[in-house]
Design a protein that fits this description.
homohexamer, mainly alpha, two-stranded parallel sheet, 8 helices
Chain lengths: 295, 295, 295, 295, 295, 295
């Protein structure tokens, strides 16, 4: 079971020149094969499906705990996309004014037809996220190897989307995810090392570009965010410190477990888009609604 | 952000005669178009995407809060499926003994090849869950109507899967979901009533069979579980009591908000399946692993 | 535009030993790549999309007219499937009696969960029909060649499904479709002959087994049904007689155009399946409904 | 069975500045999840699959009859798309002149490669229509609720596509569909009212913008087109007047049943696109073809 | 089994003004329904699946041999796409410089996120190639008819993509494929003629535009490349000369079998794209790698 | 380019009790996400897409060469499936005898409707192979890590399918693939070691069961087949010996490069299935066909 808080992981700056195609690109990191929907659902199902848990508790705790963190990643990306789509069409209530004219040339029309200029579980080409993206073989070594590869693939995608989009909203989100995804890469490498004795350090980083080349990521690493594993639970997943220990393979800093979770930031309140009827509640209706709700 | 607890919502009895095809049927409720993956992801994305939140806080709180509960539903169904698949093949380490012989005739071979006899985000025919199942138009009235329909469609599926599978593990899970899904149906009806003034009571129940005809559900309704809306958060989503109030459309009982969440039960520890190498950690490896972990 | 009649093309006998898996096999002919959904939608879109229509009217009339006939084919197959699924589970209103127990082992669980033991636009493996099955290149010669191939592929599938299912309901439907599909094969061969001068007769039949080897088809061919092209319209598509003329490539009989359409048969009234809540209208509700409808 | 007429429902003006991306947007209304392919196929299958028909004839008649109308909607949209794509590339027979150069940047390349600049059963992103879009549970109340939701979702999409495309061809088609889709929304609301007693009027309209804000729709409503239910059959579906009666929820006007169908308009004759070989019949071939056809 | 050579079939000129959208269009010919992945896999599976091979050896040899040639076609198109994508973004190692900025507006973002500006088994809209594209009924006449249609459909697509893209790299590849695909059309027509006696010559060409209208194809046909069937094997597939004989249906030239395969050209060495980390091997790493490889 | 030989890699014994469901299970290894279609196409595209080839020749040679071997693996599995489906229905030419009756209950109806009881590019649930299964990031380290993971995932699937099917035809094929796939796992581990210095030996084997536990694999390893890398080319891919050198991580034996390829075995001649019209050439037609072919 989970408990939910109305906080997001990153304090997202408002975009400067929001462009639908920038938002469409960021969708890859949310709903693509290597997007955060995939990391979230892979680790969630692997945690539910873990056989022999009591014998191998630290591994279970690690996977279950990272699954919990991934939820905040789909949340962060969704808000980034939402902000980047807000105000990208002409506001107004007259449909004849063709307020969505520029959406016709946008790469992703779903953002304007299926959603209210908001995020969807799709990739940068509009392909829906699929349950096929979940790998859960039940073999611990293979699942960990998969997770290590998945996170490296996700890292490559983050790097490339960063290079596509200069919008500060996107870069703040991606920079954060590079750091936290980096934590997960190290975690799965440590897990494989504990399980088999292999030393994966010589492979770091994959691809061969340091997070510190990304200013938003560097800032967070300077604050040590790449060294911290939160437990994302008040009481559970406490044996992950058996795996998350020792030094970081990139800078040799000491790895730290932080019980609970980061404080987070208030999520942005998204402006209405009246031309999309989103949310579509007219001012004149509000009094009556308020009476029913609060009266 | 979320916090995760190592508790599940239902105390699942161990199955009596576990059958792969029973487990395959239950997958519809997890990964089908009307399964809990769909309810979870619909409400999750609608909560991220909510425009004009501050103006319409009780509606946002309701959707965000139900999204949080749905997580426990995919968890419950996954554990039910896992238990129903445990031990359904011949245990042993000699591959030549054809330990998975009976899987050849099972309806869902993915359970034995892609997973370690565990749950996957697929439906009863093995089709993967798809992001296409998420509806998030941004128009509040339309999204609530969708959610009301989605929950009714989900209810019909639950009723039919219940009728397919007599296994007590499945019936305990489905009975619980009938009750809690029923809470969500009422919640979205109340939300529509508050938003528009419509009275949907005459339509209850959809389909036309009372939850109380299902013994496992009746027991829980006798305990009042159909009247309670948890907030699934220590501090947030507190304005849902503006919507979740008054009486239940089926029995006229009073609706109650319960801050936080139910206590829950320890998740089952799933037995190993050595013929599947799940988890595939041999006893002779354990000492060395323990040394690395704890040494 | 169309006009619809409450008649079906074939007088379908009730099944003798209805089996869910037989019905699942027949789905291939309805919703498979070479099923009647495909022929219907291919010719429908080709007729809408026809460029240079006035110059090539007989070809347009032929395609538009066959499209109209295909509607009766999806209707026929749907009713055949519906009859074959009726009564295949245990009737009754107590869900605890596991009335759908045998559906668990059925190849197609969608028939019992997504539908009320009725037809769906899916194939024999449950894969949904896809718009990808529509070919509409705009090049008349290529579209006609496609249609000729499509009908031959459809014929092969009909022959094989006939060989899988001995149920008289299915055989009556498939026998009819073999004859009428045979008309379409000849029609597209004649169209190609008129367009290019090619003589496709030496290729007949594809595959190499005469319709007359199928008793239900032979009976209809003895009545001459393989020689008749209906116009499926009171006033339009009258120039198809410029193409549908001369002799039949298989038996040399004369080809005939019949203005309008066959008389048809009353569709079967499908029994209720109370355990599926299909239609789910309880006797005690009927009086009130009647009052609203007729009062 | 159906009868087909060479008439379309709307007199479509020729486009002024045809743009491939405008046509690509309109595809959402034809082949999208909430497009007319979906309404057509949902009601068609629900009519074939109706259990207990004789007991509930007015409901069956209503669904079967609306299914018949939907055919004219896929026809109308297809012609609108076809007109909007006609002449959008450079005409000519020399392939080296790169006549399709501007198609390279078009959002939907299928219009130029797979089709002859014509309509396809795909959505605005090129995703093919899927049989998954058909809901046919067999439970009448649930199916009607689905249909009510489906039509409201379709209405939202129509409104948004209208706002994207100022082209008069598209607006004429969409304005017409807003009115006729509005008839269907009322029809399913009335059906639910007759079945259960629920009064859905307070929810109208969904989303909250009157059809009369769309000039092309307003003109048709001024003529009363939103009050008429055609039977789309000379002799059948006559009991729908038991449901389609009383007043319109938006303007209180009286609802009228009109036996048969509207007269309609001649479909446009689409120009050839020689660079696409559509239809690809060279003038020098015509004499020979004519001799075979008419000689 | 196969043997592989480091040669490609066409000497591809470097592109002049490489454009991502041109490359995206060419993908249709590689991974589309009628692309070379489809011809390769159709004939490959038909050759594996051939029943009664010894009785019908020339047909088997023909299909198996054409399958072998198709491999060189996916290779040619992949290299053409790769060349057309090389250098289309800003080279450099600083991610903050937004080196992939122009990819945001490209039609196919997968080329920049999933691949290193290289080819993928997808079509012009990014849809992945699917095994559904393989037709292998086992009925020889039907499979040959399919192949004849498939090649004609492929020819139409090639003609249209040629008309979209003026880039010499693409035109060299497509011109070559028009000629060799033309060989396959003739081959399947001859096979059908040998099997059934049908004469398909009157249908040539489909669509109705001679290869000789395409300068790059004309040049190759002037050299006689349209008359040659290679065996693509040193020792096998030698009975195809029983089918590939007589004259070419377009120009009456004599058909020739050439044992073995064409000499081919060295494949281009693709430049690195450092901003994509492709291949991502830094100069400073090379010495160490060389030591491990060659030391 | 390739050259093709009429030889297969394994001398496949005829099955003893061929069962359609056994064949359906083996399809996972051919067309599943981790099947040989995936390994073939991943390495094929990676070889076409390799950037900086001349600088990193041994890595290119290794990938290109393994791609060539994979072709023989799809061939082997296709023949195994074909043999296992041969004779599984009732032979005969009278369709009324319901010769395919037992196919109705088979898990994979495509084998009997879409194919002539032969292999298709689909998985064990009938899902078509998809181009989405190809990973080709262009980053060499990441692509090699992917390949290492892919082969380990493929190994797990092979082990499980082996445990499902006792049929000697299947076991001979799977045993062979376990050995050769094992070669590829070692190869990608060695490539990663050469590229980065990492030592992956401690992870072997994944999953944790030695190939030698599989009798058919043990026999081949006793012959040394796990130590040999063929070049699959007379002249190219010769620098792979820079990577394929040293000792085998499982048994310490010396790794050997063998120029060219194994000799192989004659492919089985598959019996006709007359009830499926496969190949559908009647004896009485043969004389005429022979006259056309050889006359």
């Amino acid at each position: 079971m989970i408990s939910r808080f109305d906080k997001i992981a990153v304090d997202l700056p408002r975009p400067k020149n929001p462009s639908p195609n920038d938002a469409a690109a960021v969708q890859e990191l949310l709903g693509g094969r290597f997007g955060e929907m995939s990391t979230l659902m892979n680790y969630t199902f692997q945690s539910f499906n873990f056989r022999g848990r009591n014998k191998l508790r630290p591994f279970y705790d690690l996977i279950a705990n990272i699954a919990a963190e991934e939820y905040s990643h789909i949340e962060t990306l969704s808000y980034a996309i939402n902000l980047m789509l807000t105000g990208t069409t002409k506001r107004g209530k007259d449909p004849s004014a063709t307020p969505l004219a520029n959406a016709t040339d946008a790469r992703n029309t779903y953002h304007f037809i299926a959603s209210g200029q908001t995020a969807l579980p799709i990739d940068s080409m509009g392909k829906p996220w699929s349950g096929d993206n979940v790998f859960s073989s039940g073999n611990l070594k293979l699942d960990l190897l998969h997770n290590f590869f998945l996170e490296c693939g996700a890292r490559a995608n983050k790097m490339r989307v960063y290079e596509m989009v200069s919008e500060p909203t996107a870069r703040a989100a991606v920079g954060y995810l590079l750091v936290r995804g980096g934590v997960h890469i190290v975690a799965y490498a440590k897990a494989l090392e504990n399980l088999t004795g292999v030393d994966l350090k010589p492979m770091f980083p994959i691809p061969d570009l340091d997070n510190r080349k990304f200013p938003e990521a560097k800032k967070l690493e300077d604050e040590g965010l790449h060294r911290i594993m939160y437990t994302w639970s008040p009481n559970d997943y406490k044996e992950l410190d058996k795996i998350w220990k020792g030094t970081h393979p990139m800078d040799g800093s000491e790895l730290i477990v932080d019980a609970g979770q980061p404080e987070g930031f208030d999520p942005p309140d998204l402006d209405e888009e009246v031309q999309l009827n989103a949310p579509g509640v007219e001012p004149e209706m509000l009094a009556e609604i308020a009476k029913r709700l609060f009266g």
